[in-house]
Amino acid sequence: GMVTLPAEINGDIYAAGNNGSEHTADSDWVKFAVPTTGNVTFTLTWDNGGSDFDLYLFDENDNMLGWSDTFTQPETFGMNLPSGKNYFLKVGGWEGAASDWTLTMVRGAD
Asked: How many whole angstroms separate alpha carbon 24 and alpha carbon 44?
């Protein structure tokens, strides 16, 4: 179903891996919409400190709008998003062991 803001979503990556440029193992997707145009902050954390997970934001046409793909957590970024559209967040496991993750999406000051 559709996620509404603010939200806290939990999931798990059962296997992480990459080929040097792309995620090659498990990725999770979250579909959401924003009720009104404005700033949204996304923050991803995970339980296994030895793993490296990344966060990407796409529009409904598969254009990447924002991302956080550092080697530490939390992965976080903010975007100003128009209402009336669907958006998709990808949680990808880059490397390390399986782990539960938590994603928060909150509205910020416009």
From this structure: 19
Distance CA 73, CA 9 (A): 16
Distance, in Å, from the CA atom of 63 to the CA atom of 103, rounded to the nearest integer, reads: 21
Q: CB under 8 Å to 38, separation ≥6 — which residues? A: 80, 81, 107, 108, 110
Contacts of 30 (CB under 8 A, 6+ apart): 3, 9, 11, 88, 89, 91, 103
pLDDT tens-digit series, residues 21-42: 999 999 999 999 888 899 999 9
pTM of the model: 0.91
